[in-house]
Amino acid sequence: MRNVALDVGAQKIAYCEVKDREVVTRTTTRGLSALLPLLGPNAPKAVVAIEACREAWHISAKLKEWGHDVALVDTTRVRRIGVGSHGRKTDRLDAEALARALEAGHLPIAHMLSPERQKLRMQIGVRHALVETRAQYVTTIRHLARTHGVHLPSCTAGYFTVKMRAQHLGEAVRELVTPLLATIEQLDTHIRTADAKLVHLCDQEPLLKVLMTAPGVGLIVAATFVSVIDDARRFENAHQVEAYLGLVPSENSSGSQRRLGSITKQGNRYARAMLLEAAHSILRMRGSEDPLKRWADAVAQRRSRNIAAVALARRLTGVLWAMWKSDRVYDPAMLGAASARGLECAAQDAALRAQAFKRVGEKLQRRVRRTTKITEDAMG
User: Fold this and answer.
1) Which single residue of 48, 156, 164, 373 has CA 20 to 30 Å from 86?
2) For residue 11, what are the domain limits?
3) What is the pTM for the complete model shown?
4) Boundary residue ending a domain (104, 124, 154)
């Protein structure tokens, strides 16, 4: 089995093959197709190391199609194997360091998402880009209105164009924002389409319905969590999942003193943001006796609301992981008397599961009705 490494750049790919600690082949190409003589279907089988990057999914799929094995490299730990050492970092040297670590068995391996989770991640990414773009346009319109002394009323982004039609802006402001409003209307249409695709995806993915039974967890939060974790079994406990998403405190300890700082913020930024949003949603619940809500309120009283939200996001992560691994819906009564580990091990009856799925179905129906109403209002 050959040991090969590829360092993928924006314009070129550096290739390096190592055998018995010696570089036997080295080259640089403009694309993967140029490596057909070395890695094509007719080439001897190889293990190919690739750093996790935007092109990694496509290159990995193509290499597996050609009959090779792929090792995805964790970019956060590549300095341990000599990448960028002594202030020297080039594509050529990086590929050699990866190939040597691969042969020696010291390569820091990252998880490769399954094809289904890759599709889910990309669909969520499309929706996120559309929502972020719409938010930027809405903010720009509000700023333009304020410069003319017009303060627009607050509303959800989905209803912004509807509210703007009923708002008296004046001819100057209206002329300025008309092209921006037209773009927002197009974005609204695309976002509704993306939401519909995710709802359809939820019907095909029973796991999403299980996770949506937890408080504060809607379709986007559940889908994002699943698309990032991919397989709950690759983690041994809830703490590993929390650390993977950057929700555990950073630590700088020496001797007998232990110093904890803010959370590490490692891992997927969007997934962490969605979990924090879910935590804030739980904190805003009124009249709820949910144990997560009561626990977070107690933390908020001792510390602060923001610290409580981060702590709640961390605990919610562990609960979601346990629900996923055990395929059990959320049970507040059980959570009140057990940790995430207890949640995983405890038994549930069919009636509780049916009731929880009924609530999820109602939640999805409300989402569809809300989207339909916004569409009808936007059309007149």
Assistant:
1) 48
2) 2-104
3) 0.84
4) 104
